[in-house]
Amino acid sequence: MSESSAKPTANIGVIGLAVMGSNLARNLASREGNTVAVYNRSRAKTDELLAAHPEAGFVPTFSYQEFAAALTVPRTAVIMVKAGAATDAVIDELVSVFEPGDIIVDGGNALFTDTIRREKAVREAGINFVGMGVSGGEEGALLGPSLMPGGSDESWVTLGPILRSIAAVAEGEPCVTHVGHDGAGHFVKMVHNGIEYADMQLIAEAYDLIRRGTGYTPAQIADVFAEWNRGELESYLIEITAEVLRQQDAATSRPLVDVIVDQAGAKGTGGWTVQTAIDLGVPVSGIAEAVFARSLSSHPEQRTVAAHLPGPAQTLQVDDPAAFIEDVRQALFASKIVAYSQGFDEIRAGAAQYGWNIDLGAVARIWRGGCIIRAQFLNRIADAYAQTPDLQVLLTAPYFVAALGRAQSAWRRVVADAAAAGIPSPAFSSSLAYYDGLRADRLPAALIQGQRDFFGAHTYRRIDREGTFHTLWSGDRTEVTAEDTH
């Protein structure tokens, strides 16, 4: 490591000064006890940040050697650059100038398996590597995000006080916890984003059904969402939905939602959530349908050629708008419970697979503030895990059983009405199918096992005795144990 005559003055540094990085640096600098060193590959970004915020007292650096020399020991750096090769390049540079015991934090949306790989490689140099989920967008980074750091216990000793100082606060508690080792933090952030996909799709379906069924304007539906936000659906996403629906387009005076192209973007974390769930054998159907709904929306060329496909003659007929809107609210809440339950199932399965000791109740608590999916009912999730830490299925907790019992009739009416009218509601309907599949006393998987045994000799188990069996399907259909086939 290159020496510098300057005395180290910063207790933490930020690399990557685009909007997220610069806002996080400003947040850090605004907290008592923090002095922040900053570095960006392009000097112009550093100069711009310093000129705009002289009050922050940033320590500017213009090389990795200067950056390392500006930091007190253990040196602590937060990387806020594009995930992938750019992150690897910065890590390599820091490893060359850092020393054993120092800490490198990746605050980007990295795939958790990349974090596991990076942590292992950096650990060989004696340096701590922390993958940290950061939720809340640009505003959260500046004012207080929800933070999901992984990494070693040693790194948490240094990072804990710093991260608690900048995190959002919900009900007096900072929205940060040491999630677990190596890739645990980025894994939990990935699932957070998957739940976010489902939540947004469910809200969009609720809006679509209300508009088609009642003929209400977006501004009128905004009032509906504002009212919902005063009850059990209270959440950031419900709040901003009302704001979006009220917005008028300045150029046309039409509702802004009507001039936005109906093609939803995605940045990968939703897909990662689904792919990982498949690998873990965890059904996250509500999240998956939300991901696929965005994919379908992004193929206008297919939707154009399919527009002539036959559909039902009937439209959605609503005689009592208030009753229908209440049905949609109940369906939204029930489906939302399913989405969160599936997400927490995936976290629990990931923790078992990768050896992480993740406190699911703590995860629910740190999502109550700062993050995109912050919602009032996260308290009920935290309560459920506090009462039953080894809860196998979140929606079987007493509070959710009661809520689903109240909502299920409305939920079924909404899904049936949407199907009869040809209105796509993939997240609503898949969530209901998951709920019914989960509570079924017997599923048609028995037939699937018979089919698999017929064409591939995959064997099956029986309900009346132990062992694995295979039927000799040709000839006399004799059943033998699996051992007899070898």
Jot down its keywords.
single chain, 486 residues, 7-stranded mixed sheet, 3-stranded antiparallel sheet, 20 helices, 12 strands, 9% strand, globular, disordered N terminus
Helices, strands, pairings?
Elements: E1 12-15, H1 19-29, E2 36-39, H2 43-52, E3 59-60, H3 64-69, E4 76-79, H4 85-97, E5 103-106, H5 112-123, E6 128-135, H6 137-143, E7 146-149, H7 153-166, E8 169-170, E9 173-174, H8 184-214, H9 218-228, H10 236-246, H11 256-259, H12 269-280, H13 285-297, H14 300-305, H15 321-354, H16 360-366, H17 378-387, H18 398-421, H19 426-439, H20 445-456, E10 460-461, E11 468-472, E12 478-481
Parallel strand pairs: 1-2, 1-4, 2-3, 4-5, 5-6
Antiparallel strand pairs: 6-7, 8-9, 10-11, 11-12
Helix pairs in contact: 1-6, 8-12, 8-13, 8-15, 9-10, 12-13, 12-15, 13-19, 15-18, 15-19, 16-17
- Mean pLDDT, all residues: 95
Shape: globular
Record field, number of beta strands: 12
The whole-angstrom Rg is 26 Å
Largest sheet: 7 strands, mixed
Indicate the proportion of strand residues: 5-15%
* N-C termini distance: 62 Å
Low-confidence stretches: 1-5
What order do the strands of the largest sheet run in, or round the barrel if closed?
3-2-1-4-5-6-7
Structural class: alpha/beta
Q: Can you give the helix content as a percent range? A: 40-55%
| Helical stretch tally | 20
